[in-house]
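Fold Annotation — chain and its backbone

Encoding — discrete vocabulary of local shapes
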Amino acid sequence: MTDGGRLRVLSWNVAGRVAVLERQIARVVGERPDVVLLQETTRRTTPAWREALEAAGLGVRATEPPGPGARRLGALAAARGHVRDPAGAPTAPWPERLAGVVAEGPSGPLEAWSAYVPQAANGWVKVETLEALAALLVRPGAPPRLLGGDLNTPRAESAEGEITTFAQRRRGAAPIPGRGPRWDLAERRILTGLAPEVVDAFRALHGYGVRARSWVYPSGMGGYRLDHLLLSRELTATAVAYRHDWREEGLSDHAALVAEVARA
């Protein structure tokens, strides 16, 4: 942990890429982060990430994806200094999509989670994962905690703060057949429904007047803000930004999220 409990947090969906792995690692380590949360790690890329982050002074916890197909992708959480496994990890339908670590610092423990929520094409596993994450974030007796990751939501956000989920076809519409209110609520709750206990760091700092996308179509036209950092009420973000230049360099199809976080 840094002096005074201030943390540099980096969350990134690294897209399982091998050809640019060394460049990805150089970018991440170059940010000198205190907490690193990665998604779409794989059996092939995780050893290199672990070696590099441990050499940079971070303790690492990573999942072992069962593979193949959609289940070849995992998650990694790392934090500076002495770390331990968190207590009370949720029962997620695809457990390899969630990695957590508890870091001990001068201001007390901090719990950090990396999450990669399955896409809507995988059906109700997406909903069940979002519900498990919501329960994780508000469970009683937990230390201050943050969760970064590719949550695969929302479809859109209005300047007034209205969320459109992937259970809707357009803003304000009723849930589409086959998804329904439970799906809509799971996406909506993880972003806005846990406040004030848990907040979306980017929106808490910038409001909804700032338009942001973390994943953009290859054509450059259209995209979604799928990548988020959620903070429990004991934490506050003093800076949050997306590193679009890393995405534009072809290092991933997602922009990384970099934040400065302090005890509230």
